[in-house]
TrEMBL record:
This is Cupin. It comes from Kibdelosporangium phytohabitans. Pfam families: Cupin_2. InterPro entries: Cupin_2 (IPR013096), RmlC-like_jellyroll (IPR014710), RmlC_Cupin_sf (IPR011051). Residues 34-100 form the Cupin type-2 domain.
Length: 111
């Protein structure tokens, strides 16, 4: 057992980039924290792993090719591998607990 301290907590980004921190990594999954400030721009690309976001604080919209939804604290979002997605209209500093299965970046683009 391991307690993952700080996972999902707001941490202001330092510089022009949004803040991504990997808090735990094992072969079958990874857990991290993604923070985007009010008015920030989410520039991520689709991932090769399945992904779950848990909104721990903040408000925004999540946009995929087929759907747009308002999100806030407590929202849980599943994004399948390869699906384009983006957080937009960030009206409150956004902190997300992120779970990747398998671990982030462990699949190649060919899979």
């Amino acid at each position: 057992m391991q307690i993952i301290k700080g996972a999902g907590e707001w941490n202001p980004p330092t510089g022009a980039e949004n803040d991504w921190v990997e808090n735990l990594r094992v072969p079958d999954l990874s857990v991290g924290t993604y923070c985007i400030p009010v008015g920030g721009v989410d520039t991520q690309s689709p991932h090769t792993e399945d992904e779950i976001y848990v909104v721990t604080s903040g408000r925004a919209k999540i946009v995929t090719p087929d759907h747009t939804a308002e999100i806030g604290p407590g929202a849980v979002i599943f994004v399948p591998a390869g699906e384009d997605h983006r957080f937009e209209d960030i009206t409150e500093d956004l902190a997300l607990l992120v779970v990747f299965g398998p671990a982030y970046g462990s699949r190649t683009q060919d899979q």
